[in-house]
Specification:
32% strand, two-stranded antiparallel sheet, five-stranded mixed β-sheet, 3 helices, alpha+beta, single chain
Length: 108
């Protein structure tokens, strides 16, 4: 398994920081609340992607454009878990919508 899944026990409106550099990659105090750092591979939700590096996208079975075009037929988390990136950690948190999650990938 190339990834580790970490379930965060936080509220949907809590900030999320990088485990390496401690930058707030989700920072609700900023107008642009998505603030990826150099360790961030992707920021996604069950309903699509907010950010992804080209390096990570190239290891996925499908492109983000393909996933967004067929969003009613795909599972974002399944696509992330199937990526062939060498080692990464997925932080999963509540999105604030019943049954939906946010996923943030960091380099290992």
């Amino acid at each position: 398994m190339a990834y580790q899944l970490v379930q965060l026990d936080i509220q949907a409106t809590d900030n999320i920081q990088c485990p390496h550099c401690r930058q707030q990659v989700i920072n609700w105090a900023e107008e642009q609340y998505v603030q990826p750092c150099e360790h961030t591979l992707f920021i996604a939700m069950d309903i699509g992607f907010e950010y992804i590096t080209d390096e990570f996208e190239q290891t996925m079975r499908r492109t983000v454009d393909d996933l967004h075009a067929n969003d009613d037929q795909v599972s974002v988390i399944a696509e992330l878990m199937a990526a062939q990136y060498p080692e990464f950690t997925i932080y999963q948190s509540d999105l604030g919508i019943e049954g939906y999650s946010r996923y943030i990938g960091f380099t290992a």
